[in-house]
Specification:
The structure is a single chain. The chain folds into two domains: 67 residues, Hypothetical PUA domain-like, domain 1 (Ribosomal Protein L25, Chain P), CATH 2.40.240; 148 residues, Alpha/beta knot, CATH 3.40.1280.10. It contains seven helices and eleven strands. The radius of gyration is 19 Å and the shape is elongated. A six-stranded parallel beta sheet has the order 8-7-6-10-9-11. Helix 3 packs parallel to helix 4. By secondary structure, it is α/β, with parallel strands linked by helices.
């Protein structure tokens, strides 16, 4: 990571790097909550790999450096798909997956899923998780915003090329070559019919993990392989 990204007083996402403007929410957070002052450095990103340094002046962002660009993920792109956890664990899961560096987060509906979202509830929760991912990306100084998708039928995701299912007792990590997506099922596990659609299965360890814990473990292992 560029030292300036790590050391700036704050990091925010903006619509335009040429004319960076703080949203009302971000302005409130930086100026009222964090109490940043004029002259402090704030890095800004467009969420697509571009970023630049700015300084605060009268509560506004003034560009103070050239636009830099971090290339988009290609072969090292990490996708984690998971059944929806109970309660507020979905927020925790998305937050931590974003911090670890996951590029795509997909929520899936499984035969044994306990939590299911549909209609307006799905739309509201998807918007909420997108905000969680954005806030976590700001905190962790990312320049690429992760994509949050779903809920999607798990068979649709498992059928995609390069996808493996996390399954106790399977082959130990790392998974097969060319793996781009790891799918974590509900706490009741996948059905045999669902597993039949996966290109392979992989174990995340010997202990029984909650959905959100398993998702983060898979992300950390995948990030280590691609590092």
């Amino acid at each position: 990571m560029n030292p300036l990204l790590r050391s700036s007083a704050a990091h925010v996402f903006v619509e335009s790097l040429a004319t960076p403007l703080l949203s009302a929410e971000d302005a409130h957070h930086l100026l009222r909550v964090q109490r940043l002052r004029d002259g402090e450095t704030v890095t800004v990103s467009d969420g697509r790999g571009g970023w630049r340094a700015c300084v605060l002046a009268s509560g506004e962002l003034v560009p103070a450096g050239p636009v830099e660009r971090i290339g988009p993920p290609t072969s090292t792109s990490i996708t984690i798909a998971a059944a929806i956890p109970k309660g507020d664990r979905a927020e925790w899961m998305v937050q931590k997956l974003t911090e670890v560096g996951v590029d795509r987060i997909v929520l899936v509906d499984c035969a044994r899923s306990v939590v299911r979202w549909s209609g307006d509830r799905a739309a509201r929760n998807s918007e909420r998780l997108a905000r969680v991912a954005r806030e976590a990306a700001m905190q962790s100084r990312r320049t690429n915003l992760p994509l949050v998708e779903g809920p999607l039928p798990v068979v649709e995701v498992l059928s995609r090329p390069g996808t493996v299912a996390a399954e106790p007792g399977a082959q130990p990590w790392p998974p097969m070559a060319g793996t781009t997506t790891v799918v974590v099922g509900p706490e009741g596990g996948f059905t045999a019919e669902e597993l039949a659609h996966a290109a392979g299965v992989v174990s995340l360890g010997e202990t029984v993990l909650r959905v959100e814990t398993a998702a983060v473990v898979a992300a950390a292992l995948a990030a280590h392989v691609h590092s």
